[in-house]
Amino acid sequence: MTELLTATQMREIEQRAMDSGAISGLALMERAGQGVADAILDTWPDAGRVSILCGPGNNGGDGFVIARLLAGQGRDVTVWFYGDADRLSADARRNHDRWLAMGQVRPLDPASLADAPAPDLWVDAVFGTGLTRPPAGVLADVLGALAARADAGVPVVAVDAPSGLCLDSGRRLGGRAVARCALTVAFDSPKIGHMIGDGPEQCGHLVIHDIGLRPWREALDGAPRPALCRLVTRAPLVPDSRAALAPLALSDKGAGHKFTHGHALVLSGGFGRTGAARLAARAALRTGAGLVTLGAPGSAQLEIASQITALMLIRINTADDLAARLTDPRLSVLCLGPGLGPERARDLVPEALRSERPVVLDADALSAFAQAPDDLLSALHGGCVLTPHGGEFARLFPDLAARLTEDAAQGPAFSKVDAARAAAARAGCTVLLKGADTVIADPDGQASVHAAAYERAAPWLATAGSGDVLAGIITGLLARGLSPHAAAATGAWLHVGCARAFGPGLIAEDLPEMLPQVLRQVLV
Prior knowledge:
The chain is α/β, with parallel strands linked by helices. The chain has two domains: 2-223, YjeF N-terminal domain (Rossmann fold, 3-Layer(aba) Sandwich); 239-523, Ribokinase (UDP-N-acetylmuramoyl-L-alanine:D-glutamate ligase), CATH 3.40.1190.20. It has an eleven-stranded mixed β-sheet, with helices on both faces. A seven-stranded parallel β-sheet has the order 4-3-2-5-6-9-10. It has a two-stranded antiparallel sheet with strand order 7-8. Strand 12 (263-267), helix 11 (275-287) and strand 13 (291-296) form a beta-alpha-beta unit. The longest helix has 19 residues, at 25-43. Residues 236-241 and 247-253 have low confidence and may be disordered.
């Protein structure tokens, strides 16, 4: 697992390092600048003319270091600076003066930029991690011009963050223009905003450069868990994931029997609405649930029976039918929502929740309570996993959704992580808020992000039924005994892994069939 830090946590780590006396702020700035310069030289070895925009803070100090190092490699470097050199921090001023011994510093304003020859590459060192106010005045105009240059095809490299992006939320402060960068070089750890919201699109390719802060970051790991957010980078997510999934490995296939590996019940909708539940059920079975049963009304049984082989089928017309089936103690987990229909959801969901078994609620199981969300929220328990997309989230948590769509007037802006944490606290269970930037949160504040971005991008998941498969994967993992958070986060990882393994042309039916291949990569 990788920590996703906030701006405050990053500053705390840096301050701890400097207070220790083991490293100076000047040395950290030098290492940061070296990391950016190396990334530029590796990516654009033929870029002869480089323009560097330096701001009034330590991000600008990094820019002066980059300028000196690139000029030392024979590049034609032009430096633009916004601010008063006498008001720079001691470390930034030292690097400003070191650059002045090599070259000029030009005032950063739209007019002077407009008259300058176009470089091969722009470096954005105006604002870094801790931006709290939208760029205004001259700086807003400068950053707008930089964004236009990027759109015209001149690459932009961001130092820490594209200027104007809140790295606690991935949101553009004040709705201002932010350059769509070709490369962003960040330091020590990715920040939340690199992975969610507009962050991945604005950052381009993301490189994390180690500047030697690991001992002090590990000290931060001892902070209370609710303060931290983690990036899902691989599966299994946590040790209990491997323990639960290990019997799927070829060498352990003979361990136990089907009920040892969990019995999942997926509730289906009526005639003509069974496809989504069948997708979820097959995904649960492929994930390793020992037995998966579809519960359908009598009107849909023939339709389902003609489409399935390994799945079981029972008749469940009413909540009373479901209650009777739930007397079987071997039923370990339920999934409701995919194709269920709103009326059937309102009838069956309360009964499923009364059983106090782990329950995955998706799609119709969420939207059916849009007019009375408290009826659902008050019945939930800690074993539940809610898997809403943005629209379903807004129906259950309209106030939180509204905060995500209003202008981000200042930083740290309200983020998708904040929204998921607040929703989980209100619901008293795990919430997986879907998207390319999927966020998983628990009532105690534990949060994870799975970003289908950068090298994990999976645009093929934008296809009907893919969310139903995700619900099924999570159901299968719960059947195997994973905790709700681990099942949701590991499920998100497997879901994207299946899409990437298949590639273009993906449809939802393909996803469960890729699970054995993806699981083999992890377990065998």
